[in-house]
Amino acid sequence: MDGLREQGIPKNTAGKNDGMKVLVIGSGGREHALCWAIAKSPKCDELYCAPGNAGIDQVAVTVSIAADDLDGIMDFVRDNGVDFVVVGPEGPLVAGLVDRLEEAGVKAFGPSARAAELEGSKGLTKDLCAKYSIPTADYARFDEPDAAKEYIRVKGAPIVVKADGLAAGKGVILCRNENEAYAAIDHIMTEAAFGEAGSEVVIEEMLVGEEASFFALLDGKTALPMVTAQDHKTAFDGDEGPNTGGMGAYTPAPVITDAMAKRIMDEIITPTIRGAAADGRPYKGVLYAGLMITEKGPELIEYNVRFGDPECQPMMMRLKSDALEMLLACAEG
Ligand code: AMP
Ligand code: GLY
Questions:
Q1: What are the φ and ψ backbone dihedral angles of 299, each rounded to 5 degrees?
Q2: From the CB of 207, is ligand 1 less than 6 Å away?
Q3: Interval 199-208 mean pLDDT
Q4: Is the pLDDT of residue 247 over 80?
Q5: Can the peptide bond before residue 271 be classed as cis, meaning omega within 30 degrees of 0?
Q6: CA of 162 to the centre of ligand 1 (A)
Q7: Which of 83, 107, 110, 276 could form a disulfide with 20 if both were Cys (CB 3.0 to 4.6 A apart)?
């Protein structure tokens, strides 16, 4: 994202025409990429980002309001006549920012709090998969450590232990043996390493295959496949460091051929969206499916209810259409 000024992208396009006032929520590489793309739209008159970062400050007006300060965001939107809000991270989505904006008559990109539970509760997503026959690892949910350990004893290892709620990408523990799995239960449930997010756990079978991410755009009625991507998980050269939320990313992901993309839409995305709508969670925004391509075919690892960070960066670089129009089309349905 270097060299934006050299590319002639204005920091603040205020007064260009009678286009839209847009506010992006978040402060990562993802939000930098979104602002960079939205700033190029002829429809964007003024672009704000809360809270933003130093890079975003080159393409948008940054406002010092935290992404989880829903009251502060609502006040800013009202006081400044913002027309459209693009929500980057999961926190404010799960907390209901889109619901509040829509109640106030402001268009917003992102799912409602109920739909955002697809990321906010791993157990809820697993139950949805079971109900609508969506391929995913076998699992069980527990809110009591002894019962969780008994399940591990019966199932054996390798096995995966996950905090149910949001844990900033750290709530998943891949366990090679039973002792690691018991320790994972102690860490998540007894020591409450992730607070309330770990009061319940999902324990699931370890899937084997190649991972890939699949992004679909949704307007509440229709799901449109967007792109595939991959992030580089480990820190340090030679993949020698610890796992991170993503050190960099590329798109497309070669493992997802056209035939595989069709299977992912037919077997995973479409039944999820139909099922979520039937359960009172109609979905708008971007749905990010973390997948394992196994011998049997695609299986869902998890859903995120937002663009990936950093995957959004190469995605916005590849985008040929107007980013603002694309995001608005999802919001307007
Ligand atoms: P998540 O936060 O659910 O994406 O999990 C983080 C990472 O853990 C994923 O990107 C996978 O590499 C791995 N993972 C999660 N669940 C499983 C599973 N059931 N089998 C194998 N790997 C998994
Ligand atoms: N890069 C992983 C994520 O955004 O969840």
A1: -130, 140
A2: yes
A3: 96
A4: yes
A5: no
A6: 9
A7: 83
Check pLDDT > 50 for residue 5. no
Q: Is the pLDDT of residue 110 over 50?
A: yes
Give the torsion through C-alpha atoms of 109, 111, 112, 115, to 10 deg. Answer: 180
Question: Distance, CA 314 to ligand 2 centroid (Å)?
Answer: 13
Q: Hey, what amino acid is at 165?
A: G
Q: Is 180 in the pocket of ligand 1 (CB under 6 A)?
A: no
CB 86 within 8 A of CB 109: yes
Q: Is 204 in the pocket of ligand 1 (CB under 6 A)?
A: yes
72: left (phi over 0), alpha (psi -120 to 50) or beta: alpha
Alpha-carbon distance 49 to 51, whole Å? 6
Confidence of residue 239 (pLDDT cuts 50, 70, 90): confident
Rounded CA-CA distance 289/304 in Å is 6
Task: Give, using CA atoms, the residue closest to atom 19 of ligand 1.
Answer: 206
The radius of gyration of the chain's CA atoms, rounded to the nearest angstrom, is: 20
Mean pLDDT of the chain: 92
- For the whole model, what pTM was predicted? 0.92
Look up residue 102 and give its two tokens: 């829509």
Closest CA to 106 of 120, 89, 87: 87
CB 230 within 8 A of CB 211: yes
Three-class SS of residue 43? coil
Pairing mode of beta strands 159-163, 201-205: antiparallel
